[in-house]
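Problem 12. The chain below contains 175 residues. Write out its predicted structure in token notation.
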Amino acid sequence: MRALLPLLLLAACATQRLDADKTLLAQGEVARLATQPPPCADARPECRQAQEIRAEACRRQGDLPCAITAWQAALAPGSPRRIPLNLAAAAQDAISTGAGDPATNAAAELTAADALRAGNPADPAGCAHAASARLTLALLTPPGPTRCARLAPLPAVCRPVLPRPLAAALHRSCP
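Solution.
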């Protein structure tokens, strides 16, 4: 019982902090939320929800790298669909606007795409984000075998996503 007490207290603190963070987000206190660490960082639902709140605060602040980091921390097997969707969108926005490292952002988008496709390999959003991330990673790689490997075809269920003109041109340059 003694070993369980600290865990219960920690969970209660995290839940109280989560309630406070929800209130701050509703009040628009995004700068404060974006700069403070979440109350916990493990896979418990309240910890993942705290990361979601921080991700939203970072996004509202325009800090896409912060949002990506928080969405990644919120992502876990069996996460609600909104988490990988938001992670993929933030990563794609960061790539489009030049915020943060493009390779890191593309890797985050690919992670989100894989999570979306985990339950349904033909998930349209998962296929689209996987194609987008692979294309970005290929464009960041010098021409040659490594670039071609990054352009490895998506599973057949994703084929309606391809080819786009740039992706098709890159595919044609591969052996």
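Discussion. DSSP finds nine helices and no strands in the chain. Students who got a different answer should revisit the alignment rule from Section 12.3.
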